[in-house]
Amino acid sequence: MNDWAPIAKEYDPLKAGSIDGTDEEPHDRAIWRAMLARYVPNKGVTGDPHLTLFVARLNLQTTEEKLKEVFSRYGDIRKIRLVRDLVTGFSKGYAFIEYKEERALLKAHRDANRLVIDQHEVFVDFELERTLKGWIPRRLGGGFGGKKESGQLRFGGRDRPFRKPINLPNVKNDFYGEGSAEKRNWSREGTRDWRTRDRDRERSREKRWPERERSSDWGDSERERDSKEERSRGRERKDRDR
Question: Comparing C-alpha atoms, which of 58, 66, 108 is closest to residue 84?
Answer without folding.
Answer: 58
